């Protein structure tokens, strides 16, 4: 009989977890405190947050050893039981959603409504991924032979998570790794370690020791995990620059990698749109989470015949935005998450003056708060080769550009090494589809942007990534493919 890793009948009926205190590494089912500690900073108030561990090489060794040991039995657990355990874990997260949303706002800065949406997305993603089953497939069948493709787990997987969606992106790595029979170690961003640590603490109620672990640390930790010979796969989400370093570090052990990297998403607006509806929608999508979303709209191309009216409508909309502490229910936009990012975005803001661009800003900087606040800014018509058009600012600043012909705007939209997302806005769906199909990006929307689904593959073209996560193809990325040749 296959070993049963979980006793679903014996699971606690409600998730008991103190989300706001005691942040430890979770190794082999136990909390581990490290001699050295560090802490995050609340980006809205600049107050220090509680201490978190700084993992050592010994902690990495212990976690990898325990993950490898746990893999032996976890991979033999029937898939239905693994899926059931992930579903229970997702339900437990839902039970403590309010606490996680508050913690998320405190460490990340996003308005609490957006934090609630991220927590909801986190359990919805896990529940959905526990419903997708990777089936063996008969590829060829004759009287004398049968050829079957089947999927086997890779082993020990490490999930490296960025600071903009620290909870949902961790869940999007844990669930597919576990349902496919792998074990998983989560490495949260040093800027936002709190939700990831508590997520894995909660997971201990549903999985055997070593199946899900978390290591928090400084900049040394990621390379240690990637270079480790007994780690089989890295699922990385972060910047293009770090993604290249991950690929280099993984080369020594020929590790499997999935890279979900940065983007510079264009939105192409055609002249037939309803300006009063579409302009505020685009501004909302560009400035959500203060622009700190990999698939936020980062370049807005508007057809020349409606350019001025559209610009004025966008300018009008951003005046209505309310900057502040995300815990304040009136706040529509929180701070930039950390000092480094704040300084980087300030660099783009400074270009406005030096280039003599016209720009509109909205949302007053809160006078009572010391945090990393930057007022949402729209730049009117910068040059195509300016930094604000070419680079990913990852903050609340977006350029507005004018176009005349479809072929011209497509060439400009595709003139980038990034290819994460893009959108086309038009009432003419045929035209929308024609333009959309010529855009080089992993996700392309017609009359929307930012929509994602746990059932659909998500990944970047060009330097925006390698491979994809979520959906069936995401599950496959946590597996080896094995071909069985049967002679009858
Ligand atoms: P980052 O690349 O600085 O850090 C991401 C993670 O990598 C962190 O956990 C960090 O500690 C770790 N890390 C840093 N150096 C490392 C190394 N040498 N080896 C291994 N790990 C290392 O990214 P960030 O600033 O946290 O996040 C913002 C970026 O992430 C943006 O570019 C954004 O577009 C991108 N992003 C992409 C997606 C996507 O799904 N494509 C989603 C969210 C964010």
UniProtKB/TrEMBL annotation:
Protein name: aldehyde dehydrogenase (NAD(+))
Superkingdom of source: Eukaryota
All copies of domain Aldehyde dehydrogenase, residue ranges: 38-483
The keyword Oxidoreductase is annotated on this UniProt entry: yes
Record keywords, A-Z: Oxidoreductase
Gene3D superfamilies the UniProt entry points to: Aldehyde Dehydrogenase, Chain A, domain 1, Aldehyde Dehydrogenase, Chain A, domain 2
PROSITE patterns in the cross-refs: ALDEHYDE_DEHYDR_CYS, ALDEHYDE_DEHYDR_GLU
Gene Ontology terms for molecular function: aldehyde dehydrogenase (NAD+) activity
Record-linked CDD domains: ALDH_AldA-AAD23400
Record-linked InterPro entries: Ald_DH/histidinol_DH, Ald_DH_C, Ald_DH_CS_CYS, Ald_DH_CS_GLU, Ald_DH_N, Aldehyde_DH_dom, LUC3-like
Organism expressing this protein natively: Oidiodendron maius (strain Zn)
Family: Belongs to the aldehyde dehydrogenase family.
Catalytic reactions on record: an aldehyde + NAD(+) + H2O = a carboxylate + NADH + 2 H(+)
């Amino acid at each position: 009989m296959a070993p049963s890793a979980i006793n679903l009948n014996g699971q606690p009926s409600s998730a008991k977890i103190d989300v706001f205190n005691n942040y430890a590494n979770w190794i082999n089912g136990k909390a581990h405190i490290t001699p050295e500690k560090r802490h995050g900073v609340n980006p809205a108030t600049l107050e220090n947050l509680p201490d978190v561990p700084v993992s050592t090489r010994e902690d990495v060794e212990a976690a990898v050893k325990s993950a490898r040991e746990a893999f032996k039995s976890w991979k033999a657990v029937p898939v239905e039981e693994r899926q059931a355990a992930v579903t229970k874990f997702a339900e437990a997260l839902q039970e403590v959603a309010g606490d996680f949303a508050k913690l998320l706002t405190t460490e990340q800065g996003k308005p609490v409504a957006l934090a609630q949406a991220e927590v909801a997305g986190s359990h919805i993603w896990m529940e959905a991924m526990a419903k997708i089953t990777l089936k063996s497939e008969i590829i060829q069948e004759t009287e004398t032979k049968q050829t079957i493709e089947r999927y086997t787990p890779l082993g020990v997987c490490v999930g490296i998570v960025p600071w903009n969606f620290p909870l949902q992106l961790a869940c999007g790595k844990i669930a597919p790794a576990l349902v496919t029979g792998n074990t998983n170690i989560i490495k949260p961003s040093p800027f936002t370690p709190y939700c990831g640590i508590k997520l894995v603490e909660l997971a201990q109620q549903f999985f055997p020791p070593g199946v899900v672990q978390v290591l928090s640390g400084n900049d040394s930790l990621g390379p240690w995990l990637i270079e480790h010979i007994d780690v089989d796969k890295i699922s990385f989400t972060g910047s293009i620059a770090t993604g290249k370093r991950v690929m280099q570090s993984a080369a020594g052990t020929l590790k499997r990698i999935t890279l979900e990297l940065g983007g510079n998403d264009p939105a192409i607006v055609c002249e037939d749109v309803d300006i009063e509806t579409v302009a505020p929608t685009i501004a909302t999508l560009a400035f959500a989470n203060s622009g700190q979303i990999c698939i936020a709209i980062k370049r807005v191309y508007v057809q020349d015949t409606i350019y001025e009216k559209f610009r004025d409508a966008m300018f009008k909309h951003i005046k209505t935005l309310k900057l502040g502490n995300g815990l304040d229910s009136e706040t529509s936009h929180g701070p930039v998450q950390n000092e480094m990012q704040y300084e980087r975005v300030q660099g783009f803001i400074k270009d406005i003056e030096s280039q003599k661009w016209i720009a509109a800003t909205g949302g007053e900087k809160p006078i009572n708060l010391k945090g990393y606040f930057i007022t949402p800014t729209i730049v009117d018509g910068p040059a195509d080769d300016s930094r604000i058009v070419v680079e990913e600012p990852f903050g609340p600043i977006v350029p507005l550009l004018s176009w005349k012909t479809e072929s011209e705007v497509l060439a400009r939209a595709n003139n980038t090494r990034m290819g994460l997302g893009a959108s086309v806005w038009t009432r003419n769906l045929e035209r929308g589809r024609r333009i959309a199909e010529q855009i080089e990006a992993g996700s392309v929307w017609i009359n929307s942007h930012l929509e994602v689904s746990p059932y659909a593959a998500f990944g970047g073209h060009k330097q925006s990534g390698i491979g994809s996560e979520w959906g069936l193809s995401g599950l496959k990325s946590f597996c080896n493919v094995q071909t069985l040749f049967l002679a009858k």
